[in-house]
Amino acid sequence: MEKKSRGVFLAALFLGVLLLAPGCAKKHISPGPARPAKGTAAPKGTYKPYKVYGEKYYPIRSAHGYEEKGVASWYGKDFHGKKTANGEIYDMYAMTAAHKILPMNTKIRVTNLGNGKNAVLRVNDRGPFVNNRIVDLSYAGAKALGMVGPGTAQVRLESLTQTDKGLAQGRYYIQVGSFQRRGNAAKLIKTLRARGLAQSRVQGAVVRGVRYWRVLAGEFHGLSAAEKARAGMADEFPSCFILAD
What we know:
Layout: H1 6-19, E1 50-52, E2 55-57, E3 67-75, E4 96-98, E5 107-112, E6 118-125, E7 133-138, H2 139-144, E8 153-160, H3 165-169, E9 171-179, H4 182-194, E10 201-207, E11 210-221, H5 223-233, E12 241-244
Parallel strand pairs: 3-7, 4-6
Antiparallel strand pairs: 1-2, 3-8, 4-7, 5-6, 5-8, 9-11, 9-12, 10-11
């Protein structure tokens, strides 16, 4: 996190509150919850306890079996290009997330309990530290879960550790498009199948009363195979993300 003066930090926090206030929820990009000043997050590569707003946090060493429900938020362009808690450069278009105690690089599946959408993200930052939220998603993650406009959503968070039996045996798809016209979805499916992804499919969904047709490329056996395929599709489908079957 870049170094900020206390005045600038408080101003950013105040702005975040204003953007989440009634009547402002439809703004395209919200900075999300305020981030701690440099030095308050866990140092890169360690599990050292850290203190924010007077509360001490103790990062755990294993995410195996970790699960929780609560409110998710997201952070976007105000932090794009800046350092995350593990030293990486924050990319709002990557599938990453901030969590208060999960080990860095933990893979998590976050499910929006309001619409059923879910996505797999990687923890590379600390937060959120306001409003009792449990996870802070990147813009790409929020978009995948359909929560960019609202700003927050009730979610279920599950860790996906390499020791989880389901990772090696599970079936995954990659959502590469979502259309209101089924014909457009059918055309894309035809293209995917011509490329050898014979089990690609179209899945219908109703979001806020509107019917959408989602194009799912796949299937892929195991999360690592799905992630490799997603990386290969990212240039052509920048907003693609992984879904568990």
